[in-house]
Amino acid sequence: MAKYLTDEERVAIVKDNCKRVLWDVAEATVKSGRSEGDVRLMAVTKTVEPLLINAAFECGIDLMGENRVQEYLGKRDELNLQGVERHLIGHLQKNKVRTIVGEVDMIESIDSLELAKEVSKRSVAKGLDTKVLLEVNIGGEESKFGFDPSEVGEKLAEISELPGIAVQGLMTIPPASDNEVEIRENFAKMNKLYVDIASKIFNNINILSMGMSADYTQAILEGSTLVRVGSKLFGNRIYR
Ligand SMILES: *Cc1c(COP(=O)(O)O)cnc(C)c1O
């Protein structure tokens, strides 16, 4: 958002965006054959200042996602987090696990068995259970983190046996694409994997986190239960 806007104006824009996206999400949810409220909207808050994040909370969003441990810990004292669930959604390095365990409600970006074991170990040491999602590299891209679709069932079975860690579902960031058909196909493929795993391997999962600003409607129509939206709420990110 441009600098010449006042804080009040910027807050008003974010609240407007939130209302619109909440409405879109509800509409797509009903269209997908589910009940309004069955799909959650996450505000993705990386690079966003607390003033605007709090505006999103005031407008009724009760879930936030941050990518980096340090950024989250650095700004959370300025956030009005009562009633807000906090997820870590960015790639997590093993040496940061100790710092983040117990500080968020869920880690969505478990992308290796080693990372899961570290989360397990640090959670046991703190006497708690950490809720997690397993990240799936649905497009098999070299540049992306996540389990290969062919191995995720087996790894989930193994991870679900670890103490101090509770697997709640799957998360994905599909390949970037402008092709509507391709976008829908990747979401459908991911949903099929999720449904297969839930029915055959581990029926305690109930979260499928997929869909971002450009494609959350399609993701919901293909079965997403949680969409992660940043720029459509807060405007384009400015990385400093
Ligand atoms: C940044 C980010 C998002 C949100 O991206 P937008 O396109 O701005 O909605 C969602 N998920 C993850 C993992 C992200 O890093």
Architecture overview:
The chain starts with 6 loop residues before the first helix and ends in a 6-residue tail after the last helix. The longest helix has 25 residues, at 7-31. The protein is 41% helix and 17% strand. With 240 residues, it is of the alpha/beta class. An eight-stranded parallel sheet has the order 7-6-5-4-3-2-1-8. Helix 1 (7-31) crosses helix 2 (50-58). The structure holds pyridoxal-5'-phosphate. The site of pyridoxal-5'-phosphate has 14 residues, from strand 8 and helix 9. Pyridoxal-5'-phosphate (PLP) binds next to strand 8 and helix 9.
Summarize this structure briefly:
By secondary structure, the chain is an alpha/beta fold. The chain has helices at 7-31, 50-58, 69-75, 97-100, 113-126, 152-159, 180-200, 216-221, 231-234; strands spanning 40-44, 63-66, 85-88, 106-110, 130-136, 165-172, 207-209, 226-229. The site of pyridoxal-5'-phosphate has 14 residues, from strand 8 and helix 9.
Structural class determined from secondary elements: alpha/beta
State Rg: 18 Å
Mean pLDDT: 96
Order of helices and strands: HEHEHEHEHEHEHEHEH
Summarize the biggest pleated sheet: 8 strands, parallel
Approximate helicity band: 40-55%
Shape: globular
Query: End-to-end distance, in Å?
Result: 14 Å
Helix/strand layout:
Blueprint: H1 7-31, E1 40-44, H2 50-58, E2 63-66, H3 69-75, E3 85-88, H4 97-100, E4 106-110, H5 113-126, E5 130-136, H6 152-159, E6 165-172, H7 180-200, E7 207-209, H8 216-221, E8 226-229, H9 231-234
Parallel strand pairs: 1-2, 1-8, 2-3, 3-4, 4-5, 5-6, 6-7
Pyridoxal-5'-phosphate binds next to strand 8 and helix 9.
